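User: Show me sequence and structure for the first protein, then do the same for the second.

Assistant: Starting with the first protein.
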Amino acid sequence: MLARLKNNEPLSQDDKLIIVLKGQMNHFHHLDVELRQETLALRQDTGQRFEIITSEINTLRQDTERRFEVITSEINTLRQDMDRRFEVIASGINTLRQDMDRRFETVTDEVKQLYRTINAQTWKMISAVGLIMLLGRVIENF
């Protein structure tokens, strides 16, 4: 076929078809090579991007863990501070309770003393009334 072209001989339909098909095969071969190279480049670029994203995610994860550790530490500090404050409040309440118990004991003792005094005075009055009545009868009988 190349010899006929050099001699300027006419080509048959089959020869022309073969030339077109070989050209298309060559074109498809180059397209296939280019596509494979672009696919490989895309795969490498995607791999690099995934490595960068993975690195950034790991950095974010570590940063988040550090922040949670700080927050956990602050919560524990606040919890300890609240425990101390509640201990102070509980101590104050216990002191107030003891003071109120003493006051109630004092009031109870005073009420008991008042009851004893009233009781003694009542018996004295009953005795005095009885004595007055007895003297009144004695005077009547004379």
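Switching to the second protein now.
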Amino acid sequence: MLLFYWDSCYRDHEVPELMDGKYMGIGLSKSVKVLEGEKGQPCGAYVVTDVTKGAFHMDDQNLLEKISQMSMFIDPRSGQSHFSVQAATQPFNQKNILQLIKGLYVRTTYGKKKTFPIGNLAQPANQLKFQTTDGTQCTVEQYFKKHYNIQLKYPGMFTVSERHNPHTYYPVELLRVAPSQRVTLQQQTPDQVATMIKACATLPQNRLHQTKLLKDALAIKEGNPHLSAAGISVVNGFTSVPGRVLPSPSIVYGGNQLVKPVDNCKWNGDRSRFLEPARLHNWAVCATLTQNDSRRLNVKYYVDLTREYVARIEGRCRQRGVDVEPCAEIFNLQRQNFESLKEWYASQKAKNRRYLMFLTSDGIKQHDLIKLLEIEYQIVSQEIKGSKVDAVLSRNQNQTLDNVVAKINEKLGGVNYNIMLGTRPTDDVNKWISDKDRMFVGFEISNPPALSKVEIERGATYRMPSVLGWGANCAKNPQQYLGDYVYIEPRQSDMMGAKLSELIVQILKRFRSATDVAPRHIVLYFSGISEGQWSLVADTYMRAIHTGIKSLSASYKPSLTALTVSKDHNERIYKANITGSRATEQNIPPGTVVDTKIVSPVINEFYLNAHSAFQGTAKTPKYALVYDDSNIPMNVVEGMTHGLCYLHEIVTATVSVPVPLIVADRCAKRGHNVYIANSNQRDAVGSIKEANERLVNQGELQKVRYNA
């Protein structure tokens, strides 16, 4: 991947200025792949290119100047720096500064030029003393005056040490940033991440134009003498591929009401009753709203605010068909800490509550603590932020209210809607995802943060495990998806293999318990799998799954189909004729599938764009059929996969990947966050084994989609 600054084809909002002495670099990712090519022709080599952007540190910038430009010293109104040595040496600011420069390569501006990565911050130059070769003690300031005749301008500024030689110290003002350094994940701030995401959302028409300009600038085109000398010729234009748009299913609500999606991706179900309404009985509300919330909504007492919102929830639930009993208790939590939350949760367990709602001011962070207690007491919970309450009560945003109600129904075991792929329930195509003996399973991994180079060199180990999340239709309704997670060894080359045998047994037992049948066909989706890991799935993972199935019964032999799903690729699919001004108009339409020419010549691949990209250029998921002993046709695989993208159950729109993977992803993230919440408690778990015993659902929550 080559990155550089290019200003002839980019608008200001596409290359925004970055703070902290950083800039945005523009470039081109490129690779050469052997693909299927034209039908009836031998497979051929293709150059795959895409525009890429990344944050870089300013080249050759004085390190002190870089620190002075950090956002912590910038007045948001004037944009001017209020940097001072006194402010920079405050402990809190030093901690933030170190996060942004640790590992940064710098070079000295005196003597023999030396380049090294920063390891840590140390005392100011006028305080830090060390012993010289002649046995005398001197400060860093004195040393530079004596040996280099340099009088430091900022002797009260902290010094920095080398990463590999931690007892060697340098004044910040005598260092410059080494060139061409990409900003690492640890060196990014949340604001910069948000800025980068926004800047990368380029409309298809612009992105295609930029890609062409950049690939031409790199001479990836006809007439390149270096390629010609090697016997290589490159076609100038982009490759045209045939595609088709799969038909959208009908959405089936209560009373057999059918709703047809608009634009193949979204629909309005606000006048429909849920297909299988749940019972909202014996429930309570815990409010941690503040007087600020009541002032914003012009309500005298925030207790009244809570009652009004609860009344809206109850009314809307009844309209959607939910059997609602009035809220049994509204409790105002005065002390926002874990002990108070736990005390209230325990009191609700004693009252056999089935559902707990938390109304929380936006400034209070307690979601992960609530979910930690949810596992301990096995009472399903839902947190709603004050801004969402505001959206409903002051701005009448009914869609926000409907999303909350849809989650309530799912969390209590209800089903909001099903889909029908054909025009009639009896159509063969509808059986693809409605057969009661076909099980769909998705697997997703959540990893702990990667160790830095310094931590690896010091022999550091991961402080928390990886989390393997799964989602499957192991419920009575074949289109209802539940899920859970399990803790595994962190960041192993074979992430899932060791757990898949016992996990597939657990999932099959839940399926059998809910449906009274054993699936004859199991379809598996693995997320985040690269082409280099196809054999890992086809061999290791499938062998583990076969072993687990065989342990249930030697005579039980269901058919297996396994697909890998990836968004981590640089193939972009554009309309042949891009028109319109909005992303939804310029992007390929939802339901677009491409399964020829730009796919692997040795394995069945397809691209399926089920969702609508509302900003930027769509990143179309790529699927590979890596294992199948069912002889299922590819058009059926594509149709099933497309249908599964309609079953999110909360949002009334398609999602980018099949819902088993969505549920698996949410479960993996839930396990990750619960582990962190537990690690801050006195009784924190001490091993992966203990985590799987205490931090994974063992009771009633296994029967519902608790993380809807």
